[in-house]
Design a protein that fits this description.
- Strands 7, 8, 9, 10, 11, 12, 13, 14, 15 and 16 form a ten-stranded mixed β-sheet that branches. A six-stranded parallel β-sheet has the order 3-2-1-4-5-6, sandwiched between helices.
- β14 (367-370) and β15 (378-382) form a beta hairpin.
- The chain is 35% helix and 23% strand.
- By secondary structure, the chain is α/β, with parallel strands linked by helices.
- The protein has helices at residues 11-22, 24-31, 60-63, 80-90, 100-116, 134-140, 155-167, 171-180, 189-192, 195-208, 229-237, 300-316, 355-361, 390-400, and strands spanning 2-7, 35-41, 55-56, 68-73, 94-97, 121-122, 146-152, 220-221, 240-249, 257-266, 278-285, 289-296, 344-349, 367-370, 378-382, 404-410.
- The longest helix is centred in the N-terminal third of the chain and has 17 residues, at 100-116.
- Bound molecules: L-homoserine (HSE).
- L-homoserine (HSE) binds at residues 129, 154-156, 183-185, 191, 196, 297-298.
- Residues 129, 154-156, 183-185, 191, 196, 297-298 line the site of L-homoserine.
């Protein structure tokens, strides 16, 4: 019998208990022995809870129980979840989690702790919700040198942008819907301002760099709060959509870079098919070429699917050290200033801006004019053929002063 505990009975934690109950026979067949949730730790009381006899408010019921070998941490955040994760790993209990904030912040320490206690710390659900991406990157694509990963990896913002674009819902209503559906973080600022996506891309980047830790806080990040219906109208004119993209570039002969920001993306690009809560992650490897992962990036049962997959993996590798390459703090910086990165962007400006003005403030930058979608303005697409970097985009738009309205990057 494999005994597990669930820490935190929120959206994902309750999903974990339900998936295990729903697929009990299938899981036992996979493991070769039955599996059960022995304890669920939460300080709250829940009405009409089918798992009420498993609930405890006493952490010792989990951490001092030698029968419990795997702990699913679905509390979220980096405070109590951090303490509990360390306590579980120190006791030799494997921990699986959907907690991207904790992995992104303390991944190095927690993986090393798991290693020294002969247990595992797994986090498949931390990126892409139910989509398998951590294990495929780490294992199935291990034969490749990965040069790029680009993804729509925040379900809440993708849901909001899709509702704004397809239905014309306003931002606040779309956010409320995402919260009701259980997609958003407790504090949705983390979603809207791109912090959730940047934690996730940092996790993927650390795996691609074979464990060299990428600190998410240094990644240039812009959220979706400034995206307007006018931007969406331009995207439609260009047969494109607006998506919050998280991109990590790992070119062979140039520096690593990462960014999280809203981008215009062509409808012809496979990534753009991910609408609503769906996520899509495109990976480029030097043997496989391009491969894409697609599925539900948030939500109770989809995320629980990934957590339970990790529970099985941890149970099958009981008493062995981590099988994700443990992360470490590299001596050299692993990410470089994004201002040197090439960028293509649409800028919206007042109609008095002439081609000559564009050429003078963006010297050497290739561009084309886009008919204004909105009265009283025109658009320019700047930086085709890798002719502009982020620094030039910033300085040129600043130089335009009041004539500049807004800019959005193009993928
Ligand atoms: N708030 C996250 C999202 C949950 O919207 O993608 C899944 O990580």
């Amino acid at each position: 019998m494999v005994n597990i505990a669930v820490l935190g009975f929120g959206v994902v934690g309750s999903g974990v208990a339900e998936v295990i109950a729903m697929n009990e026979k299938q899981l036992a067949a996979h493991l070769g022995e039955p599996i059960r949730v022995k304890k669920i730790l939460d300080i709250r009381d829940f009405e009409n809870n089918p798992f009420s006899e498993l609930m405890t408010k006493n952490a010792d019921d989990v951490f001092l129980d030698p029968e419990i070998s795997v702990v699913a941490e679905t509390i979220g955040g980096a405070q109590i979840a951090y303490e509990f994760t360390k306590r579980a790993l120190s006791a030799g209990k494997s921990v699986v989690t959907s907690n991207k904030e904790l992995v992104a912040k303390h991944g190095v320490e927690l993986m090393q702790l798991a290693l020294s206690n002969h247990c595992t710390y797994l986090f498949e659900a931390s990126v892409g919700g139910g989509i398998p991406i951590i294990r495929p990157l780490h294992r199935c694509l291990a034969a490749n040198r990965i040069s790029k990963v680009a993804g729509i990896i925040n379900g809440t913002t993708n849901y909001i942008l899709t509702q704004m674009s397809e239905i014309g819902t306003d931002f606040a209503d779309a956010l409320r819907e995402a919260q009701q559906k259980g997609y958003a973080e407790q504090n949705p600022t983390a979603d809207i301002e791109g912090h959730d996506a940047r934690r996730k891309i940092a996790i993927l980047a650390s795996i691609i760099l074979n464990g060299a830790y990428v600190d998410n806080t240094v990644i240039h990040t812009e959220g979706i709060s400034s995206v307007t219906q006018e931007d969406i109208a331009y995207a439609k004119r260009l047969d494109s959509k607006i998506k919050l993209l998280a991109i990590f570039r790992h070119p062979e002969k140039a520096r690593n870079s990462a960014i999280v920001a809203p981008h215009i993306i062509s409808r012809q690009d496979p990534l753009s098919v991910a609408d609503g809560v769906f996520n899509a992650i495109a990976v480029r490897g030097n043997a496989i070429g391009d491969v894409m992962f697609y599925g539900q990036g948030a939500g109770k049962m989809a995320t629980a699917s990934a957590v339970v997959g990790d529970i099985l993996d941890a149970a099958l590798h009981h008493d062995r050290s981590a099988h994700i390459t443990p992360w470490y703090n590299a001596e050299e910086p692993v990410l470089y200033d994004h201002s040197d990165s090439f960028v293509k962007a649409l800028i919206r400006v007042k109609p008095s801006v002439t081609d000559r003005r564009i050429e003078s403030v963006f010297p050497g930058v290739l561009y084309e004019r886009v008919d204004g979608v909105v009265d009283g303005e025109v658009g320019f697409i700047l930086g085709t053929d890798r002719s502009m970097n982020e620094k030039t985009l910033l300085s040129g738009t600043a130089e335009l002063g009041d004539l500049f309205i807004s800019r959005i990057r193009i993928y």
